[in-house]
C-alpha cells in the first residue's frame, strides 16, 4: 500500500488509535486508526463535512479529541502540558486553507515573526538571508515589502507555505492547499509540496478535494466517510477500486 | 489544551416566557463566568515570563499616541463648552470669579476621565474587538498558536496592559487641554491673564481631586482593554461576528466605565468623609 516499501522501516511520526471527536450532538470523527511514517505524503480525501480539517486540527492540538489516543513522535499529545505542546508544535507546520497571513504585517514581517519567536538571538544578517531564501524557494522575492492584501490567492498560499517552512518542520499539515486556485497555480503548489518533501524529508498530511493534487502528491490516500477511514491505498489502487463509492472520487 | 470559551448550550425557549427569562439569566451568568476565567487567565499570563515588552510598547503607541488627537480635540471642546454654559449661571449669583475653579474641578474629577474613557472605549475598545475577531475569523490566532507562540500572551496581555497604562496618561492630557479650552472660552468675553486663570484653578483644586480621578482611569482602561479582547478573542459566526464583537465591546465597555465610576465615587466619598 505504501509506495516506497522502505518507508515502513522509517520511524512512526503520527499514530492515532480509535480517535473520536464530536461537537455537541454532531459526531464528526468516530473511530480513526492511522499510522504515518517519516517522509510519507498522506492525502486525506472525503466529502465536505466528513471531518478532514477536524482531524488535522486534532493532530496539531487546536482541537481536543473526545476519545482515543493521538501520538506525535511517540508523545501522546493529550498528556502534554501547555508548554510541552508549544515545544512540540515547533516541529509541525500548518498551512491553513485561508493562508492565515498576519494582515497587519508585510511579507517580510510575516516571515520574520516565527523566526524571531523561535530563534530569539538570530543575527540580523542571518535573519535576512533566511527570509530571502524562503521567498526565493516560493518565487516571491519581489513581494518582500508588500502587504498580504496586495497579493493574489496563489501568492498568499505560497507565502503561507514559505512562512510555515522557514522553521523547517518535520511534519507539514496542508488544509486544502489548492482550494480556490486556478489549475496552473494548483499544479505549482502541488509541485512545491513535493519539492518540500524531497528537500527536507518532511512528513506531509494533505487535506484536499483536488484529485489532481492528490495524484501528484500522494504516497497513500485515506478516504474518510462517516467519521472512519473507509478506504486506504495508493492513488492507482483506489482509482481502480471495485467499490463504486471509492471509484466515484476519481471520476 | 485548546482554548475554548465556557460553552453551555441554551435550549430554544421560543413561546415559553418562563424558560425565556431563565435562559437570559443562564446566558448572563455563563458570560460572567467566562469573562472571569478570561480575567484570571490574563493575570496568570501577565505575571509569567517571558514578557512581550516590544509588543507592549508598540500597542501603547497605537492605543495611546494615535488616540491623542481625538482625545485632545474632545477635551478642548468640553472645556470650552462647559465654561460657556456655566458662565451665565455663575454670573447670576455674582460668582463669575469662581468659574475657572469650578470648571477645573468638574473636568479633573469627573468629566475629563469619563468622557475620555468613553472616547477611548469607542476608538480603542472597538478597534481591539474588531482586530482580534478578524484575526480569529481568518485563523491568524490559530496560526500563531501552531507556530509555537502563545496568542493570549502576545495579543491579549499586551493590549490590555497598554490600554490600562495609556488611558490615565490620555486623561491627564485631556484634562490639561480641557483647561486650555476653558481659558480660551473665558477670554472670548473679557480678558483674563493665564497666570490669574491658572492660579485660580490651583486655589480651587486639591490633590484629593486629582488622585482618585487618576486611579479610577486605570480601572477604566483595564475594563476597556479586557472587554475588547474578550469579545474579539472569542468571536464566532464569521465576518458577522467581527461587527458584533466590535459593537458589543464598545457597548459593554462604556457601561463598565459608568459602573466603575459609580463604585469609585462611593469609595472616594467614604475616604473623604
What does this structure look like?
The complex is a heterodimer of chains A (251) and B (273). Chain A folds into two domains: 5-91 and 170-248, 3-Layer(aba) Sandwich (Rossmann fold); 103-168, no CATH class. Chain A has nine helices and ten strands. Chain A has helices spanning 52-59, 82-89, 107-118, 124-137, 153-165, 183-200, 211-217, 235-239, 244-248; strands at 12-23, 26-37, 41-46, 67-72, 75-76, 92-95, 171-175, 203-207, 220-225, 228-233. In chain A, α3 (107-118) runs parallel beside α5 (153-165) and α6 (183-200) runs parallel beside α7. The model of chain A has no long low-confidence stretch (mean pLDDT 86). Chain B starts with 16 loop residues before the first helix and ends with a helix. Chain B folds into two domains: 13-48; 53-272, no CATH class. Chain B has helices at residues 17-47, 53-63, 68-92, 99-137, 140-146, 151-186, 194-204, 207-233, 238-272. By secondary structure, chain B is mainly alpha-helical. In chain B, α4 (99-137) packs antiparallel against α9.
Mean pLDDT of chain B: 89
Please work out how many helical segments of chain A DSSP would assign: 9
Low-confidence stretches of chain A: none
Q: How many domains in all of chain B?
A: 2
Which SSEs are present, and which pair or pack?
The complex is a heterodimer of chains A (251) and B (273).
Chain A: E1 12-23, E2 26-37, E3 41-46, H1 52-59, E4 67-72, E5 75-76, H2 82-89, E6 92-95, H3 107-118, H4 124-137, H5 153-165, E7 171-175, H6 183-200, E8 203-207, H7 211-217, E9 220-225, E10 228-233, H8 235-239, H9 244-248
Parallel strand pairs in A: 3-8, 3-9, 6-7, 7-8
Antiparallel strand pairs in A: 1-2, 1-4, 4-5, 9-10
Helix pairs in contact in A: 3-4, 3-5, 5-6, 6-7
Chain B: H1 17-47, H2 53-63, H3 68-92, H4 99-137, H5 140-146, H6 151-186, H7 194-204, H8 207-233, H9 238-272
Helix pairs in contact in B: 1-6, 2-6, 3-4, 3-6, 4-6, 4-7, 4-8, 4-9, 6-8, 8-9
Amino acid at each position: 500500500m505504501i509506495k516506497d516499501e522502505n518507508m515502513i522501516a522509517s520511524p512512526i511520526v503520527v499514530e492515532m488509535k480509535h480517535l473520536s471527536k464530536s461537537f455537541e450532538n454532531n459526531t464528526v470523527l468516530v473511530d480513526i486508526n492511522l499510522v504515518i511514517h517519516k517522509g510519507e505524503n498522506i492525502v486525506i480525501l472525503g466529502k465536505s463535512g466528513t471531518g478532514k480539517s477536524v482531524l488535522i486540527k486534532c493532530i496539531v492540538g487546536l482541537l481536543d479529541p473526545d476519545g482515543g489516543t493521538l501520538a506525535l513522535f511517540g508523545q501522546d499529545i493529550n498528556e502534554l502540558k501547555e508548554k510541552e505542546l508549544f515545544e512540540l508544535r515547533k516541529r509541525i507546520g500548518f498551512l491553513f486553507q485561508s493562508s492565515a497571513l498576519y494582515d497587519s504585517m508585510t511579507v517580510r514581517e510575516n516571515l520574520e515573526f516565527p523566526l524571531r519567536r523561535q530563534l530569539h538571538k538570530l543575527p540580523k544578517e542571518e535573519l535576512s538571508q533566511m527570509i530571502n531564501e524562503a521567498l526565493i524557494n516560493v518565487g516571491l522575492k519581489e513581494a518582500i515589502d508588500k502587504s498580504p492584501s496586495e497579493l493574489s490567492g496563489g501568492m498568499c498560499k505560497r507565502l503561507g507555505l514559505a512562512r510555515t517552512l522557514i522553521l523547517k518542520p518535520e511534519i507539514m499539515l496542508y488544509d486544502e492547499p489548492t482550494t480556490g486556485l486556478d489549475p496552473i497555480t494548483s499544479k505549482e503548489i502541488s509541485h512545491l509540496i513535493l519539492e518540500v518533501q524531497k528537500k527536507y524529508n518532511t512528513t506531509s498530511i494533505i487535506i484536499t478535494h483536488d484529485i489532481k493534487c492528490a495524484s501528484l502528491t500522494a504516497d497513500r490516500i485515506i478516504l474518510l466517510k462517516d467519521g472512519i477511514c473507509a478506504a486506504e491505498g495508493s492513488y492507482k489502487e483506489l482509482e481502480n477500486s471495485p467499490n463504486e463509492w471509492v471509484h466515484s472520487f476519481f471520476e | 489544551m485548546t482554548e475554548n470559551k465556557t460553552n453551555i448550550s441554551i435550549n430554544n425557549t421560543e413561546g415559553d416566557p418562563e424558560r425565556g427569562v431563565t435562559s437570559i439569566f443562564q446566558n448572563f451568568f455563563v458570560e460572567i463566568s467566562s469573562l472571569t476565567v478570561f480575567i484570571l487567565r490574563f493575570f496568570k499570563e501577565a505575571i509569567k515570563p517571558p514578557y512581550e515588552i516590544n509588543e507592549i510598547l508598540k500597542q501603547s503607541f497605537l492605543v495611546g499616541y494615535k488616540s491623542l488627537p481625538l482625545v485632545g480635540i474632545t477635551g478642548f471642546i468640553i472645556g470650552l463648552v462647559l465654561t460657556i454654559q456655566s458662565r451665565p449661571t455663575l454670573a447670576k449669583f455674582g460668582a463669575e470669579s469662581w468659574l475657572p475653579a469650578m470648571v477645573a474641578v468638574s473636568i479633573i474629577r469627573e468629566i475629563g476621565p469619563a468622557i475620555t474613557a468613553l472616547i477611548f472605549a469607542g476608538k480603542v475598545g472597538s478597534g481591539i474587538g474588531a482586530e482580534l475577531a478578524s484575526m480569529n475569523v481568518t485563523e491568524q490566532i490559530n496560526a500563531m498558536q501552531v507556530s509555537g507562540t502563545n496568542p493570549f500572551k502576545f495579543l491579549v496581555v499586551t493590549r490590555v496592559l497598554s490600554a490600562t497604562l495609556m488611558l490615565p496618561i490620555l486623561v491627564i492630557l485631556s484634562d490639561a487641554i480641557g483647561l486650555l479650552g476653558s481659558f480660551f472660552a473665558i477670554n472670548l468675553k473679557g480678558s483674563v491673564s493665564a497666570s490669574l486663570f491658572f492660579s485660580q484653578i490651583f486655589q480651587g483644586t486639591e490633590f484629593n481631586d486629582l488622585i482618585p480621578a487618576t486611579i479610577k482611569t486605570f480601572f477604566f482602561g483595564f475594563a476597556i482593554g479586557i472587554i475588547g479582547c474578550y469579545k474579539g478573542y472569542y468571536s464566532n459566526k464569521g465576518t458577522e461576528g467581527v461587527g458584533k464583537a466590535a459593537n458589543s465591546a464598545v457597548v459593554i465597555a462604556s457601561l463598565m466605565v459608568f459602573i466603575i465610576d459609580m463604585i469609585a465615587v462611593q469609595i472616594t466619598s467614604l475616604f473623604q468623609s
